[in-house]
Amino acid sequence: MRTTRLLVAAATATALAACSGGGSVDGSPGGSGVRDPYFPKAGNGGYDIGHYDLTLTYDPDGEHLTGTAAITARATQDLSAFNLDLKGLDVEEVTVEGRDARFNRAGQELTVRPADELDDGETFRVTVRYSGEPVTITDPDDSKEGWLPTADGAVGLGQPTGSMAWFPGSHHPFDKATYDLRVTVPKGLGAVSNGELTGEVTRGGRTTSTWHVAEPMSSHVVTVAVGEWQTDRSTTDDGVPVYTAVDPRQAGASREALGRIPEIMGWARDNFGPYPFSSTGAIVDRVEDAGYALETQNRPYFPGAPDTVLLVHELAHQWYGNSVSPKTWRDMWLNEGFATYAEWLWEEDEGGDTAQETFDALYDGTYYDDEDANDSIWAFPPAEPPDAEHISASPVYQRGAMVLHKIRQAVGDDAFLDLLRGWAAAHRHGNADTGDFTAYVEKSAPDEDFSGVWEDWLYGDGRPDRP
Ligand SMILES: [Zn+2]
Questions:
Q1: How close is the Cα of 34 to the center of ligand 1, in Å?
Q2: What's the 335 CA to ligand 1 centre distance in angstroms?
Q3: Are 223 and 241 within one domain?
Q4: Domain extent at residue 262
Q5: pLDDT band, residue 26 (cuts 50/70/90)
């Protein structure tokens, strides 16, 4: 949940402004996006969502989803209309504060005009009933997200904008909220989501699972994974519940890595500070079910059994990406550079390559077997991906991690770990951008001059002259 509006609402929902005939109208329509530089229509202006209550029924045979989204939000201006993001699906009814609301749709924008205007500061509840076959979205970089049918069910994956394929909302990391999800699937299958499982009931040939997410969550890391699952519960040594759900075909291959979750969580806590959420775990689907792993909150998603290093990467994102979320999709290196550096730190602590050796191999162009892959990390500066197609390209990951290593070289190991922990604490459950980060580093180490690191490594084009 955001408490201040740092992004200015983009183009207004003019479609409905014209039909506000009769009566006095003081409010104006909320914005149709939050002016993200790469996804300008993602998220919405004029209100701030506090909580999503999602009731979903999914039938994998017909690929049919029926949903009710009850959203609690607070107006941040006088509102005559506001938008939600929703792609595909049929909307059957929208109510605001229990009264029928007019609505229309254009692209991914569902514009709602409440019967009564909403006042600035007013908390309101909007309910959307919808159904249909949810769509799979192809991103600018050709990866698939949104709703992905799988061999035995489906999975919802939302980076960067896919969650709008299965529930209406404000789909930008800037508007975080808490969630309750109630998901009904045919008996024999299960529905695994974020947060904690608070109930599981089978009746009438269907199983309903309820999940509660108490900490703020960006909609891009919400998931529901429907399928056959082997589930397991344990706890970390400091009492964080671990819940894993594994496709039975991946159970054997996953056992060793998933068994190390409590150990990885302890290691991560020592390096990154207190865990920001109230449960952890993993979801392991079949290899062909998705093209990538994702740091879905509490419980990262893996297509096929992860190795330990991948598990470290996705669990590190719980601190960097999910608790400290990017202000815009341009700030993606604050997610991926940190999660990649977590891999380097883990390997160093496990007796593998040191972070310095990994850095040197990347700089020297010997890290990958493939020459093009070695060259590709210099394609653009990590803080400035050229367009939406490149927010998940290798400079964001590897060169992002190299920026962190340059800071470590400057301040030393102890101060660097203090900085990693301090950054996670300073923006816990919030949002931050690159400018926030450089300011934080400079304030943490006032005697150091970081201007060369920023100019050459963070914002500079090409491979810096010196490592
Ligand atoms: Zn990542």
A1: 23
A2: 6
A3: no
A4: 235-318
A5: confident
Domain stops at, among 196, 228, 260:
228
90 neighbors 128 (Cβ within 8 angstroms): no
The residue type found at 83 is N
pLDDT score, position 294: 98
Specify whether the CB–CB gap between 84 and 110 falls below 8 A: yes
* C-alpha 126 – ligand 1 centre gap (Å): 33
Q: How remote is the CA of residue 332 from the centroid of ligand 1, in Å?
A: 9
Tens of pLDDT, residue by residue over 328-341, are: 999 999 999 999 99
CA of 339 to the centre of ligand 1 (A): 6
Q: Give the tens place of pLDDT for each residue, 118-176.
A: 999 999 999 999 999 999 999 999 999 999 999 999 999 999 999 999 999 999 999 99
**Rounded-to-integer distance, Cα 378 and Cα 461, Å:** 7
How far away, in angstroms, is 53 Cα from ligand 1 center?
A: 27
24 pLDDT band (50/70/90 cuts)? low
171, 158 contact by CB (below 8 A): yes
Same domain, 358 and 215: no
For residue 83, how far is its CA from the centre of ligand 1 (angstroms)? Answer: 30
Show the tokens assigned to 415.
Answer: 């101060």
CA 80 / ligand 1 centre spacing (Å): 39
CA of 191 to the centre of ligand 1 (A): 24
How far is the centre of ligand 1, averaged over its atoms, from the C-alpha of 82 (Å)?
32
Q: For the segment 206-233, what is each residue's pLDDT rounded down to a tens digit?
A: 999 999 999 999 999 999 999 999 999 9
* Per-residue pLDDT tens over the stretch 245-304: 999 999 999 999 999 999 999 999 999 999 999 999 999 999 999 999 999 999 999 999
Distance CA 163, CA 182 (A): 16
- Helix ranges, 210-349 (H): 251-259, 261-272, 308-316, 333-349
Residues 151 and 45 in one domain: yes
How many angstroms separate the alpha carbon of residue 299 from the centre of ligand 1?
A: 13
Q: How many domains does the chain have?
A: 3
Question: In angstroms, rounded to a whole number, what is the distance separating the alpha carbons of residues 63 and 60?
Answer: 5
pLDDT score, position 18: 39
**CATH code at 335?**
1.10.390.10
If asked whether residues 335 and 449 sit together in one domain, one would say yes
Q: Where are the alpha helices (DSSP H) in 148-238?
A: none
How far, in Å, is the centroid of ligand 1 from the Cα of 101? 40
- Alpha carbon of residue 404 to chain centroid: 22
Tell whether 76 and 172 lie within a shared domain: yes
Q: What is the pTM of this model?
A: 0.94
pLDDT at 25: 61
Q: How far is the CA of 314 from the centre of ligand 1 (A)?
A: 6
